[in-house]
Amino acid sequence: MKNLFRTLIPYKWTALLVLMLMAGQAFCEMNLPQYTQALIDTGIQNRGIEHIVPEAVTRREFEAAAALMDEEERAAWEAAFEDGGEIYTRKDLSREELDELDELLLDPIVSRYAQKNGGTLADAEAYAGSDRAVFADRDNADSVSNKNLMAMGIRYAGDCDEEAGLDLLKIQNDFMWRCAGMMLLMSLSVMVFTTLISLLAARVGASIGKDLRSGLFSNVMSFSSAEMDEFRTSSLITRATNDIQQVQMTATMILRMMLFAPCICTWSIIRVYQMHAHMNFVIVTGVIAIFLMAGAMLAVAMPKFRIMQSLIDALNAVSREILTGIQVIRAFGRQETEEQRFDKANTDLYRNQLFVNRAMISITPLLMIIMYGLSIWITWVAAGRIDMGEMQVGTMTAFIAYAMEIVFSFLMIAGMAIFLPRAGIAADRIYEVLETETGIKNADGAEDIPEDAEGVIRFEHVSFRYPDAEENVLTDIDFTAKPGETTAIIGSTGCGKTTLINLIPRFFDVTEGRITVAGRDIREVTLESLRDEIGYVPQKGILFSGTMADNIRWGREDASDEEVRLAAETAQAAGFIDERPEGYEREVAQGGANVSGGQKQRLAIARAVIKEPKIFLFDDSFSALDMKTDVALRKALAEKTAGSTKIIVAQRVGTILHAQQIIVLDEGRIVGKGTHEELMKSCDIYRETAISQLSEAALA
Questions:
Q1: Residue 182: which pLDDT band, with cuts at 50, 70 and 90?
Q2: How far apart are CA 638 and CA 632, in angstroms?
Q3: Hey, where are the domains in the chain?
Q4: Which end of the chain is more exposed for a tag (fewer CB within 10 A), N or C?
């Protein structure tokens, strides 16, 4: 899981900004239930009156209320009003000052309210459902008496305002519009915060995907053949696409949801605590139920996530193999068999995904049951308290809203707990590639090969075995390839010819001995300078999307059109290129699907020729050519590459008769070395091969 969060480290400042914006969003969202509560409790039930001290009072009522107050209360009462003759008007007091007056004057004002309605102080106490001790206990904000007594005090303030000639409907409407305006402002603020957070989260997610793809591709490009064999191409494709998509999506969700959940939960808990509704046990029960459910789902689905990624790898591998070999499959009539193989891989993935999806989809109805069940439970408990006078309707509404926010925040956390494991597995697979160091790299202090160095290649008692193999593929290989000469390597299939060629550009490193170029160990020179000296033509001609000219220019990007044409003529490719109207601008399909095997080989040779290297490596690169083209090509190459070192892997003896040096391999060892004439006399394996391939006239 740590690798998943590692992807966010480069964007920590953006994440901090998102967290700050989320705090603002949470603050605004948490104020909305408060305004809803105020609209119901104050705006509707109390006619927009917030305090027990009226805005205006007649002289007669002012004096009647003052008669019930002690000295301190009377002083505060008189200081709160301005004498206007028959009407006393409340001064412009702050909310804090009015709250203090509400607390100080609650007793006498309620007493006056009881008197005005034909009762006594004892009647007021009885109405409140409390004795005098509770009535006097104003420190307990959740006291049954205080809630009801406060309501009577507000009704008294409304009666006084009406007697003084104030428009109560206007007071109520002003309060309602004020609350509505604040709710609109908060809603717009939430919209702005949400938009900014979404933009930043999407940007970070896209950047993470881009960076991971770039890093993964860059590291894979440095892999040797050993690392490529370890990971497999199909798995690397899955990691570069599906796995990175999982990480990118989850990173966006972390910024958008996982960071928001603690913010909204913290604010909601603070608000619920401040309400003193004594229904916290309902929320705790809901949260416990959510975590139990999420834990059970996680335990069931988690093992399937890792299996899912492996099954995606397997499906990609089968798909790639079938699509690549479609012609062979059709030629052998194996369509049905291959369809069954694909169907098995597809069905295995389908069953795994179906199980996981069913497990995850079942979360939604269960969570809905929990949420709506909590709403019903809260409403049931609150209804009883409202009936007993312990709670107001607006308080219940706000409490339900805060409770749902708390539950929803834990719901988001539980939901992320389901997605995080799969993304964590995907991140681990990505970092497994990113943290794999290729075994083929520049040594400390490696230097470039001097430009004036000759392309002399020397194998000094070289042995090689593949990683984890028990036996050598090559053993004690010792020979020298000189500039201006052709060194041919021949032998039976599987004797190590291609492996020997691949050691020179360091696709693999030798196990024993050393290979030198211009007298320097190839492990002590930079890979860039070593490979710049080599023109490599692989056994299987590989072309890339683009034009014919683009593929030839792979050898040297700045080559002119004339140089491209000359290279094509040398490789005997100009004929089939010129016969099409598009010429060198003819598009090559992906993988060279629209050219033949022989044409691929000639274009690959042209690509090496235009590079003008000091060393040419031909890995059985003439096998798809007819004899006439082969002879013309070798003649043109001999003229074009006269000063270069040439190493040719060949299957046909007839193509290497004039090589200055022929190396005969058998089971990874040199069993013969010399010219054709020398080997016919000294090497039985070579002589038998030559006799089986050539006529007596050719052997003479």
A1: very high
A2: 10
A3: 56-165, 205-434, 446-533+614-625+641-700, 541-612
A4: C
Give the model confidence (pLDDT) of 351-376 as tens digits: 888 887 777 777 777 777 877 887 78
The CATH class, in words, for 541-612 is alpha beta
Q: Identify the CATH number of the domain defined by range 205-434.
A: 1.20.1560.10
Spatial distance between the Cα atoms of 609 and 616, rounded to a whole number of angstroms: 9
**Domain pair 205-434 / 446-533+614-625+641-700, same fold:** no
Token pair for residue 646? 């040439």
Query: What backbone phi and psi angles, to 5 degrees, belong to 445?
Result: 80, 10
Give the DSSP H or E segment for 488. Answer: strand 486-491
Say if CB 106 and CB 150 are below 8 A apart: yes
pLDDT tens track for 292-331:
877 777 777 777 777 887 788 788 888 878 877 777 787 7
Which tokens is 699 given?
Answer: 């052997």
Nearest CA to 478 out of 658, 672, 685 is that of 672
All residues at 6 or more sequence positions from 412 whose CB lies less than 8 Å from its CB, including other chains: 257, 258, 260, 261
SS3 437: coil
Q: Is 400 helix (H, G, I), strand (E, B) or coil?
A: helix
Residue 579 pairs in a beta bridge with: none
Helix axes 168-221, 244-253, angle to 10 degrees: 160
Answer yes or no: is pLDDT of 123 > 70: no
Distance between terminal CA atoms of the chain? 72
Distances, alpha carbon 337 to alpha carbons 107, 314, 334, 343, 529, in Å: 93, 17, 5, 10, 48
- Both tokens of 427, joined, read 């991140």
Output b/e per residue, 503-526; b: 16+ Cβ within 10 A: bbbbbbbbbebbbbbbebebbebe
**442: DSSP letter:** P
Contacts (Cβ under 8 Å, ≥6 apart) of 295: none
108, two tokens: 């006498």
pLDDT recorded at residue 634: 85
Structural class in CATH, domain 446-533+614-625+641-700: alpha beta
